[in-house]
Amino acid sequence: MNCPRLKSWFLERYNFDEIRDLAKQKLVPIHKYEIWYLTGGITLFLFIIQFITGMVLSFYYIPYFEHAHKSIIEIVTKLNMGWFFRSLHHWGAQIAIVVLFIHVWSCLLLKAYRKPREFLWFSGFILLGISIFFGLSGYLLLWDERAFAAVRVATGGAGNLPVVGEFIKAFLRGGIDVTGDTLTRFYAFHVSVLPLVTILLIGFHILLVQYHGMSVPLSVKKEECKETPFFPNLLYKDLIIWLVVLGIVVTLATLVPPEIGKKADPLAPAPENIKPEWYFLFLFQTLKLFPGEILGMNGETIAILLITAGILFFFLIPFFDRKSQRGEKSTLFTWIGVIYFLYFVIMTVIGFVS
Amino acid sequence: MKRMLTALIGMFISAADVFAQQDKIDVFPAVPYDRFIVYQNLIIFWAGIIGLIVIIKMKLREIERTQKLGIDKEEKDIPVLD
Fold first, then answer.
1. What's domain A33-276's superfamily in CATH?
2. A76: closest CA among B25, B58, B33, B79?
3. Spatial contact of A317 and A109, defined as CB atoms under 8 Å apart
4. Is B29 in contact with A83 (Cβ distance < 8 A)?
5. CA angle at A60 for the pair A56 and A62, rounded to the nearest 5°
6. How far is A338 from chain B (nearest CA, A)?
7. What are the phi and psi torsion angles at A27 (to 5°)?
8. What is the pLDDT of residues A55-76, one digit of tens each?
9. How many Cα neighbours within 13 Å face the side chain of A278?
10. pLDDT at A10
11. Closest residue, chain A, to B28 (C-alpha)
């Protein structure tokens, strides 16, 4: 399609050559670990899928506790392709969190957080936290008995934090217990607060990537490292991997559509063998390891404190890893990353199997 | 007696509602023909994806070839014919 008049109309107003030159000037290092650069792009692509499918679902979802569950059943059973969009949203979220975890760990093991990219690490880590909260808030919107019980456990766990715990619990629940108010609140988080914060943070994250450029691992020598233009070389590679990911998400959405449980009943006891979503399993399993009381103190509070300290250490790693800051190899922090990874995987598997 | 009977009938009707509830909600088209269409479309979708990947890969290879030869850069101050 060639529209010279339309083209000249735009060219009179915008200098596309300048933008094209700018895109061509951006260079990306190529080395044996370059495949990990793609995980950031995949996450962005999955976020876009989530935004689109989420918008479609929000046209029909009713965020009121009496109608929420029924509205989802109607989306799935009565709307044309409704089951597919819901399934796509579900699997898109699951894979987005998997890829985000891989992205975070790859950055940790390749020491991509080192000076001057500390804020890239912080913004990425906060995005991971937001994505998990996206998952939790979206899970409750189903308003089935499993989601209800899982959110009750998760928000109850937050309540065990000393000093601020009760406030966080009440803020999340919108009251003493999980009720219809919690559903309304979680819906507001899921469709307005979290997307807005996510867009701002993604913008900030991408801006920082452009500003600092891609991080090159310490083990890759400068003379060995070549550079390739981002446009079109890396963009085409991104497109290929995005298409593969789209295929995987669509296949999972078609072959394994998520089930819908019975409508939540706040007065009914929690169903047996209740488990949270897979990305909370390691926390759930850790809490199980602790006895009810340790030295006269609440065991769960101690567990929550230790987990918080562990997450905080992970978050502040750029400040602790002094060797990487100086541009030296830091084997200790590689091992710390490996231990964190193994702990997460083992606890998740145990939680899944038990 | 009449009240008791009405209450009893009401109870049975409520109990029937429990049995009438579906155990599992269909989260996928239940009609075999619809299922067939879905699976067929999934295969076509994958064929499209593979085709697109092949096209992009060919395009990328061509770009890399021209970059290697150094003929991808536009010459500055090139005379314009118009």
1. Cytochrome Bc1 Complex; Chain C (1.20.810.10)
2. B25
3. no
4. yes
5. 130
6. 34
7. -110, 145
8. 999 999 999 999 999 999 999 9
9. 14
10. 87
11. A83
